């Protein structure tokens, strides 16, 4: 087929017949051979996980205490890793090694569960909340004058998004796939380690130097001293939601797995990458949460780096904030891709003859080469970024928003769908031992998600009582 036809036909889906199955330059599905390894996949996972919730963990540990805090962290770590291994086996269906590839989380759910449109809406909704929170944290850390950086990045990405599917630079939605964003994940992972290490170092220095008297207890904040009885309950629920959000990456796991080479089998490599990624992030989470709690005690702030705002060296804290900004720009680009793809694919199906939606226009820039620009993508993506930035500034509730997002997204994306899809794909016998305890795990996680959501909603209602637009809340 003439390569130019690929660009003209935006709804073209690559198949082995188009390129010749088994060709040395293409995989079994007709796409250019994937080159990802356990190293790049681990970097993607670390990018998606660290930074999404590490800043609030000292506060979460302060609510739960020395016993329950680390225990909850480790419990969520194990659950996330375990369900990620189930999801990794669902990348190919019906056989986890030789079956048909699925390119997105929604594709897997549709392929195995045959659901209604509710699944698409659920996936979009949780991705939207995650992306909005990434944008909101970016606004808080970078201040308002840095927001154009995100806008420029989005517009630049929009301009680069063409439909040259034959070179596999973009996936079927016309958006950059993870194999082309590996460098972004490496940079973001380095930034994650940088600002986490700075926070850890400052915490150690504060503890070693005395840093004033701080109170820490086995059960966290004390009733009658730090909080009232009801506040203790609500904060405990909210802290669980914060920790759940800290491990959220299931909605991009399939896209990460789709970057891996086919040999050795993708599911085996992905399980290894998940183990490395989760172990690495858990180590940092425990260190940041526990050392942050040791440094600030029961008065730990929602963002533990803000607690060092009046400590020297100031330049080190500023550098940590710059690292956070760089990391969140990368995380924002990663998490917004499913939303962009969903809307743009739907628009193409809704208005197939519209030049505004489907037309590609070549723009030549001096010293930069030629770019294929789609006006709809430029307008839609720019509008989306601006809108989420404004919303993030309007509602800067750090911990409560974090807990609510974690509560809403954790159970369906991290627990329910992976378990249900694994049960169906493996043809597991109903009421068998494994089936029973998987169901029990799912129901327990649902209960945890509900109570943490209630706690976060209660926290948001309290925030609104003292709400001031465009002012960050601690």
TrEMBL record:
Transmembrane segments: 41-62, 68-91, 181-205, 236-254, 275-296, 316-343, 378-395, 401-419, 440-460
Keyword set, alphabetical order: Amino-acid transport, Auxin signaling pathway, Cell membrane, Membrane, Symport, Transmembrane, Transmembrane helix, Transport
Annotated family: Belongs to the amino acid/polyamine transporter 2 family. Amino acid/auxin permease (AAAP) (TC 2.A.18.1) subfamily.
Record GO biological process: amino acid transport; auxin-activated signaling pathway
Organism lineage string: Eukaryota, Viridiplantae, Streptophyta, Embryophyta, Tracheophyta
Location of the protein in the cell: Cell membrane; Endomembrane system
GO molecular function, one term: symporter activity
InterPro entries: AA_transpt_TM (IPR013057)
Any one Gene Ontology cellular component term annotated for this protein: plasma membrane
Domain Amino acid transporter transmembrane: 34-112, 175-460
Main location: membrane
Descriptive protein name: Amino acid transporter transmembrane domain-containing protein
Pfam families xref list: Aa_trans
Chaperone among keywords: no
Membrane topology type: Multi-pass membrane protein
Source organism of the structure: Vigna mungo
Function per UniProt: Carrier protein involved in proton-driven auxin influx. Mediates the formation of auxin gradient from developing leaves (site of auxin biosynthesis) to tips by contributing to the loading of auxin in vascular tissues and facilitating acropetal (base to tip) auxin transport within inner tissues of the root apex, and basipetal (tip to base) auxin transport within outer tissues of the root apex. May be involved in lateral roots and nodules formation.
Record's keyword annotation contains Cell membrane: yes
């Amino acid at each position: 087929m003439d390569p130019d036809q690929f660009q003209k036909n935006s709804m073209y889906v690559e198949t082995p017949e188009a390129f010749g199955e088994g060709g040395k330059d293409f995989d079994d599905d007709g796409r250019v051979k994937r080159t990802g390894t356990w190293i790049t996949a681990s970097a993607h996972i670390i990018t998606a996980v660290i930074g999404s919730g590490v800043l609030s963990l000292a506060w979460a540990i302060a609510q739960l205490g020395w016993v329950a805090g680390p225990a909850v962290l480790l419990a969520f770590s194990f659950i996330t890793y375990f369900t990620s291994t189930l999801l990794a086996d669902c990348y190919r269906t019906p056989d986890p090694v030789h079956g048909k590839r699925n390119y997105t989380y929604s594709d897997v759910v549709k392929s195995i569960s045959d659901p209604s449109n509710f699944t698409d809406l659920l996936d979009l909704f949780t991705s939207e909340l995650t992306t909005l929170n990434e944008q909101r944290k970016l606004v808080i850390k970078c201040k308002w004058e840095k927001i154009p950086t995100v806008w420029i990045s989005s517009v630049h990405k929009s301009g680069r998004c063409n439909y040259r599917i034959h070179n596999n630079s973009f996936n079927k939605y016309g958006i950059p796939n993870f194999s082309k964003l590996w460098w972004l994940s490496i940079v973001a992972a380095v930034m994650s380690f940088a600002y986490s290490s700075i926070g850890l170092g400052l915490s150690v220095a504060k503890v070693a130097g005395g840093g004033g008297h701080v109170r820490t207890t086995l059960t966290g904040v004390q009733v009658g001293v730090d909080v009232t009885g009801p506040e203790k309950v609500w904060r405990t629920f909210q802290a669980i939601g914060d920790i759940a959000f800290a491990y959220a990456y299931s909605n991009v796991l399939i896209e990460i797995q789709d970057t891996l080479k086919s040999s050795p089998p993708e599911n085996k490599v992905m399980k290894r990458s998940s183990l490395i990624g989760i172990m690495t992030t858990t180590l940092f989470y425990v260190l940041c949460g526990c050392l942050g709690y040791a440094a600030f005690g029961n008065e730990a702030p929602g963002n533990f780096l803000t607690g060092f705002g009046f400590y020297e060296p100031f330049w080190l804290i500023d550098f940590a904030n710059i690292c956070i900004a760089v990391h969140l720009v990368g995380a924002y680009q990663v998490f917004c891709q499913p939303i962009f793809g969903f809307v743009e694919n739907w628009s193409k199906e809704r208005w197939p003859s519209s030049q505004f939606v489907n037309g590609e226009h070549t723009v030549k820039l001096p010293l930069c080469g030629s770019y294929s620009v789609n006006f709809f993508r430029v307008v839609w993506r720019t509008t989306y970024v601006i809108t989420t930035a404004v919303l993030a500034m309007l509602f800067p509730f750090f911990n409560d928003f974090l807990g609510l997002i974690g509560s809403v997204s954790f159970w369906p994306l991290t627990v329910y769908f992976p378990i249900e899809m694994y049960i169906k794909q493996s043809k597991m016998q109903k009421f068998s031992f494994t089936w029973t305890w998987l169901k029990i795990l799912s129901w327990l996680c649902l209960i945890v998600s509900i109570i943490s959501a209630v706690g976060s909603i209660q926290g948001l209602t309290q925030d609104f009582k003292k709400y001031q637009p465009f002012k960050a809340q601690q």
